[in-house]
Amino acid sequence: MNDTDAGATEFRRTRFDSVHTWAATLAAVVALAFSIYNFTELQQKPRIDVTLPHLLRTGPVGNGTVFQIQPTVSTRFKTQDVEVILDAHLELTPVGAIPSSKKPIFYWHETGTYVYDFNSDQINYSWTSDPAPFIVSQDKPQQPTLVFWADDWTFQPGQYEGSLQLSRSGNRGPLTEKFCLDVSKKAADEIHGAGQRQIFFFRDDLPRFHSSGKSPDCYRRETDY
Fold it and tell me: Is 105 exposed, middle or buried (0-12, 13-18, 19+ CB in 10 A)?
């Protein structure tokens, strides 16, 4: 091998070493950037989503009304912190021809669940806990059936504007989801004539209501036409 070939070989080796060094440095920088990003994401507060169900339950209890709602409370992001839901509030405000003095005052009475009984082919309600804070994290989403009571109040025919408000820990603002409820005279009469703790379903996803053109997104009694 002459001096020219030796010089060319040494040049190629030097260039290869230089490229290898830059590639290793770039890979290290990218890995560091990902580590910083992941660390930053983990340090952030969890971003919580609240989604209302397609079905609400209500009926008479005592001298008042029970209202049951099962939201999905979840986060799509992994963080070191967890979110704590401290309290739940339900509001129903009559609109239109219903007197505003008829507005109910709901309080969180308990949390429950519905369990299917194969023997009787029925879905039975079961108490699960007192009204108490619950934890939400990426690996622990929540679907509690929140049970609210309003004393000395019952539904009148008409439309109601509703909101579910979940209070959070850490001095963070509450999570609020709004909805509307359309109670027909037929539905109101059903509730007034029902026995204690009889439950009635209201839905917001039935096609015949969506095509009606009148407040299509409101929850309505399944038996309304």
Answer: middle
